[in-house]
Structure formats: structure tokens, C-alpha cells
Amino acid sequence: MSALWPEPTTVADLTEGIRAERAAWEAVLARVPRDLLIQPGLPGGWSVKDVLAHMTWGMREGIGVMRAKRLVGSDLWKLDDDGRNAIVVEQSRSRPLDRILADYETTSAEYLRELAALTDEQLNDPGLWPEMPPDWRPWRILHDPKHYEHHARDLREWLERSPSKR
Predict the structure, then answer these.
(1) Is 119 exposed, middle or buried (0-12, 13-18, 19+ CB in 10 A)?
(2) 11, 14, 137, 145: which could join 5 in a potential S-S bond, CB 3.0 to 4.6 Å?
(3) What is the pTM of this model?
(4) Which CATH homologous superfamily contains domain 11-159?
């Protein structure tokens, strides 16, 4: 196993962790008035709408990987994080807020359904995923344990800087 991801996990533990991380993120998200969801102010000039589109894109990509049981997806993965994220956000900017919110909800639920269809062995054994490097852990490709907290921290800081202290 890789020193980067030494611990195996189970579908149940990963699902529980994702639900807890998402609940913490969504508790901060709930503090943002609807009219401010489209206001830039987060790192990179992003709005909350942009963050939701970014998260939804990542979950959609994970769904594709889980369904194919192999590393598949957008050519944007060939770019560095900043380049990929800039394109994803730019592509979503013209989409209405209600569509972004609905996509986030439906994609979140679909992601968890696909995760539940995996076995514990599939989450941990790169040999079960064609072309996956042997030192990678499939669960780690599907989920970044710091992603929700990263965006929640940015959102909390933005809210604290806000004059109305939402």
C-alpha cells in the first residue's frame, strides 16, 4: 500500500464519512442567503454557485469511474487543479442557480448510490480497476477527505468577513 493512503476503508465507513463531511459543509452553506449564492467573494473570485458546480462536476466524474470500474472521465483531468477548476466553473457560470442547486442534490444522491454498489475490496484493491497504478487506492480517487472542509472553511471565512456577519 502507498504511504499516502495507508489505511483500507469500507463502503460503510466511506459513506458515513462523506455524509458527515457533507453535513458540515451544508450547515455552513445554509447560512448563506439565497441572493448571495451568486456573489463572488470566495477564493479565485468564485461564488457559492461556482463551488457547487465544481463539487457536482467532481461527483459526476466519480460516478463515471465507479460505473466503469476504471479510470475514465473528462480530458480536463490532464490539466492541473487550477486549470481544470477554472474551466469547470467558467462552463457553469451561465447556468441558472436553480439548475446548479438541483444538479448538486441529484448528483450527490446518485454518487452515494453508486458508492453503495461497490464492494470493500473494490475500494481498496487497485488491481480490480484496469490501468490503475498499483500504489493508488480506489477510494481515494473517488473521494478527497479534505474537499468539503476546504470549501466550508473558505465559506466560513467569507461569511465572517461579510458586513452583516451572516
Answers:
(1) exposed
(2) 137
(3) 0.91
(4) dinb family like domain (1.20.120.450)
Block residue for cell numbers 481544470: 84
First CA to last CA distance, the chain: 44
- Given a contact cutoff of 8 angstroms between Cβ atoms, the answer to whether 155 and 32 are in contact is yes
The tens digit of pLDDT for each residue in 101-135 reads 999 999 999 999 999 999 999 999 999 999 899 98
Q: What is the DSSP string of the chain?
A: --SSS-----HHHHHHHHHHHHHHHHHHHTTS-GGGTT---BGGGB-HHHHHHHHHHHHHHHHHHHHHTSS---GGGGS-HHHHHHHHHHHHTTS-HHHHHHHHHHHHHHHHHHHHTS-HHHHH-GGGSTT--TT--HHHHH--TTHHHHHHHHHHHHHHHSTT--
Beta bridge partners of 40: none
99: nearest Cα among 45, 37, 152, 21 = 37
Per-residue pLDDT tens digits for 32-55:
999 999 999 999 999 999 999 999
CA–CA gap between residue 91 and residue 96 (Å, rounded): 12
What is the sign of the dihedral through the CA atoms of 34, 35, 37 and 43?
negative
Backbone torsions φ then ψ of 128, nearest 5 degrees: -85, 0
